[in-house]
Amino acid sequence: VTPTNCYLVSLAVADLIVLLAAGLPNISDVIAFWIYGYTGCLCITYLQYLGINVSSCSITAFTIERYIAICHSIKAQFLCTVSRAKRIIAAVWIFTSLYCTMWFFLVDTDETVYTNGVVVTCGYRVSRSLYMPIYFLDFTLFYVIPLIVATVLYGLIGKILFMSPLPSQLMDRAGGVSVHQGLSHSTNKSSKGTVTTRKQITKMLAVVVILFALLWMPYRTLVVVNSFIDPPYHNTWFLLFCRMCIYTNSAINPIIYNLMSQKFRVAFKKLCRCNRQHREAEYNAPIYYSVMKNSSHGSNEPVTEQEELSGQTQNRLNMKEDDDSMLSIS
């Protein structure tokens, strides 16, 4: 378990919440009727914003963790720990959970009476103009600031990883020769492996951040633009495009991990084979064979431990209780 993995678990849970909460209203859109009632309207809206905001905070958290681990390796020994990561994740979830409680008071169900029936929808409780400060606060805290932080920190990380020379390169340039050349070569090889692993992880996380920025941009932009124009822009195809981007962002991360992380592929294969290997182990127990020589009566007939365990040895050997001359060959 690593701090980065802890943040990725938090991100995965948040993405699942977004997929669930953003997918349920589609059923109501198909039948043109809100089927989840007043409680469903409140909870679904709350979970949508909770998942979105936790995703943003988790991305910011593992970006800062990567920056400290790579650019300040000495501080990372006591700052980038699993216990600290768990505390940060707990703080993120508590903060966003409290922050999103305002949506319990901002949405409500609305009934529209027609001649042929009543249509129930889930919408805003007050006029749309009053939501502008909330939208801008949400846009700034959970989109603009995380992207600025990620851009700056990944720029510094890239400068360290991809532009700074490796320790082995510095040795070669200096022309220094160590007495312990074998140890030096092993250390340089280990250092190269560490840098390569860090580059791989950093590239993967950078792709996650870039896709987060691109896939959330249409929806975030639409919300900001609709805060200024009247009537709001509600093109059906563009709204569908925004939804598809949101779903893609929440579902694409495992694909990125599989494409860019060898450790993820290995762990995923082990997870898939775990149950099958467990079932095979129940029926296949290892059997060890050892050939033994009977010297009590001068017999050279070999005896196996498998026969000894099954009691077949008694029929072949008439050993005395004090006979200790049995010789193990294997």
TrEMBL record:
Keyword list, A-Z: G-protein coupled receptor, Membrane, Receptor, Transducer, Transmembrane, Transmembrane helix
PROSITE patterns, per the entry: G_PROTEIN_RECEP_F1_1 (PS00237), G_PROTEIN_RECEP_F1_2 (PS50262)
Lineage: Eukaryota, Metazoa, Chordata, Craniata, Vertebrata
Designated name of the protein: Thyrotropin-releasing hormone receptor
Chief place where the protein resides: membrane
Listed transmembrane segments: 7-25, 31-52, 88-106, 134-157, 201-217, 237-260
Biased composition (Acidic residues): 321-330
One of the GO BP terms on file: phospholipase C-activating G protein-coupled receptor signaling pathway
The family this protein is said to belong to: Belongs to the G-protein coupled receptor 1 family.
Region (Disordered): 296-330
Task of the protein: Receptor for thyrotropin-releasing hormone (TRH). Upon ligand binding, this G-protein-coupled receptor triggers activation of the phosphatidylinositol (IP3)-calcium-protein kinase C (PKC) pathway.
Compartment annotation: Membrane
One Pfam family, short name: 7tm_1
